[in-house]
């Protein structure tokens, strides 16, 4: 998943924005106000075969964030606005083994959502910056270990790859993709829940680059077995130079039994069309996870996955991992303590390939 540059705010500026919105929302318009967020910090050790390092970072797989939600309800109509910001400057998806784009920055807050919406029995229409309709489609996961292990590489995206410096220009995130949706500014429609299914469609125009996305989530129970299915599709019309045309499809499913056993899987493809047909490329990937929850709060899991042609034709990555996650409640807030290990291997259609990468992480997430 690619990192998207957004609007940056200092802590002081953010405080002014929040106080202004709070005052305007509650007093001027008599809107209801909700404030929520989460903190997710991780200790990450990584070794790329050339060097190794340990850092305390913000875990980009479920980033530290704050959300202000203003809304008004009357009869069956709900009108609202929301702004959500994430912590940036020490985000794991920007950090290499011993530093990264965030290493020279102070902590900043990055606007990920800024939107208005109308919700009724006919569904929800939203306008502004937020998730594309297919975001989350390849991450359906009922295992209870999505913070420790998941179909997500943002903990390690920016780790550089080496093999006698031959691959120093490539990163782990270029070889390993989860085929999930992105964020952007545009319009989105979310259908009402019908028998467990919710559908979404979004359109995000950005100058000469336009993204159309479709997505859906289905939740149900078969006897006592919980089941979740996610599906997503997007098509990007590029600008013919810096952004290529692309079509992406992703699918994921997860099931959990009363015994605590869970199975999770995902599959994705991406077709890239370049202005030079010789650079056209099709890639694919799969993911699988086996989990077991015990004591009603602790889950162990192992996972495995692979990508083909994600970085270039003939590139390949495979990975496996193991993790443990414990859910808890403190002072009325839910949280997770987690530990994970993941091993990546790489191959190419040439005589050389990047060295293996090992990542060990342990962290704590609290939501409020």
Could you name the key traits of this structure?
single chain; 368 residues; mainly beta; 16-stranded antiparallel beta barrel; 2 helices; disordered N terminus
Structure in words:
The protein has helices at residues 11-28, 172-175, and strands at 7-9, 32-47, 52-58, 65-74, 77-88, 95-96, 99-100, 108-120, 123-131, 183-190, 197-206, 209-222, 225-237, 245-256, 261-273, 281-294, 298-308, 316-330, 333-347, 357-367. It has 368 residues and is mostly beta strands. A 16-stranded antiparallel barrel has the order 2-4-5-8-9-10-11-12-13-14-15-16-17-18-19-20. Strands 6-7 form a two-stranded antiparallel sheet.
Give the secondary structure arrangement, pairings included.
Blueprint: E1 7-9, H1 11-28, E2 32-47, E3 52-58, E4 65-74, E5 77-88, E6 95-96, E7 99-100, E8 108-120, E9 123-131, H2 172-175, E10 183-190, E11 197-206, E12 209-222, E13 225-237, E14 245-256, E15 261-273, E16 281-294, E17 298-308, E18 316-330, E19 333-347, E20 357-367
